[in-house]
Amino acid sequence: MKVVVISGSPRKNANTQIIMKYVYEYTKTKNQDVKLINLSDGEVECYRGPEEEYNQATKDAAKDIMEADVWLIGSPIYNSFFSAALKNLFEYVSYKETAGKVAGMAILAAGNIGFIDVQTLLTQLLSYFRVITNPKAVFLTTESISENNISDEGQARLKEMVDETLKIAEKLEN
């Protein structure tokens, strides 16, 4: 099973990056074919249309997403929405190649507001791509991250999301 982990924050020192790198490392212990797309690397170009030429990192990110069976997506909440960088990434993805994939998500915010709104928006986006979404998202606040470390509770919830999402994918494979 191929898995792609997506860190949806464009910020260089993003807390989303911390949690999704944790998800990536944990997922590697479960599945050897795991790739990380980290939007804070700044390598994915801004979408300019289907006839344009894009750099190799952008092409590879789109290819990795379309080839993966499971997507593990992390997004910060910016102005009651998921990140524009994450939305931009999905401009490269063809809905014709994504039906039946499975996704789990982790959403990070400064406070305890807006989680359900962003979960709904991400789920709607994934529905367009005909992706089956794990209904149990992980909601974390920035308080759960200190000095680049995730709280024990946050780690447990992220592991549970990964395990449950992989289990859903395995059931659908059979």
Summarize the structure in words.
The structure is a single chain. The protein is built from five helices and eight strands; from the N terminus they run βαβαβαβαββββα. With 174 residues, the protein is an alpha/beta fold. The chain has a single domain (3-173), classed as Rossmann fold (3-Layer(aba) Sandwich), CATH 3.40.50.360. The strands form two sheets. Strands 1, 2, 3, 4, 5 and 6 form a six-stranded parallel β-sheet that branches. Helix 1 packs across helix 5 (152-173). The longest helix has 22 residues, at 152-173. It starts with a strand and ends with a helix. 40% of the residues are buried.
Q: What's the pLDDT, averaged over the residues?
A: 93
- The CATH topology is Rossmann fold
Structural class: alpha/beta
Query: What is the CA-based Rg, rounded?
Result: 15 Å
Tell me the number of helical segments per DSSP (H or I, 4 or more residues long): 5
User: Secondary-structure element order, as H and E?
Assistant: EHEHEHEHEEEEH
Q: What is the total tally of β strands?
A: 8
Shape: globular
Per CATH, the superfamily is Flavodoxin domain
CATH architecture term: 3-Layer(aba) Sandwich
Helical content (DSSP H or I, runs of 4+): 40-55%
Distance between the termini: 12 Å
How much of the residues is beta strand, in percent? 15-25%
| Whole-number total of structural domains | 1
Biggest sheet character: 6 strands, parallel
- Give start-end ranges of low-pLDDT stretches: none
- According to CATH, what is the class? Alpha Beta
